[in-house]
Amino acid sequence: DEKHAPPPIGKEPWAWITPLLNTKEVTLMNQIGMDATIFLRFIRMCRNMFLILAVIGVGILVPVNLTNFKDFSTSSEPDTTEWMLRITPRNVFGSPHWALVVVGYLFNI
Predict the structure, then answer these.
(1) Residue ranges per structural domain of the chain
(2) 3-state secondary structure 25-43
(3) What is the pTM of this model?
(4) I need a labelling partner for 65 at 20 to 30 A (CA). Which of 32, 48, 83, 96 fits?
(5) CA torsion angle for 8, 14, 19, 25 (degrees, to 10)?
(6) Contact 92, 69 (CB under 8 A)
(7) Cβ contacts of residue 57 below 8 Å, gap of 6+?
(8) Are 53 and 47 in contact (CB under 8 A)?
């Protein structure tokens, strides 16, 4: 059935990306139907929301946690997981927690 045939792609493993990004929504509606087109639109919306929230979260919370980290370790040997502890709010106390509250509130609006 030529009406529902996908566009031709190359033989490279990544060749499917260009037709996917360049195919218009009207063409998708005719080829795969309204349900699949709405599903793709929903997935795109989820991706965009995740990217925006991730950039805001990393851009605001990681610097707040890094600058306000209190080191309570007593060992002198370097810890390989220390960088992960520094970017989490585990050892952050006091007023820097308001940044977590504000960002959490903004995420839920």
Answers:
(1) 48-108
(2) HHHHHHHHCHHHHHHHHHH
(3) 0.68
(4) 48
(5) 130
(6) yes
(7) 103, 107
(8) no
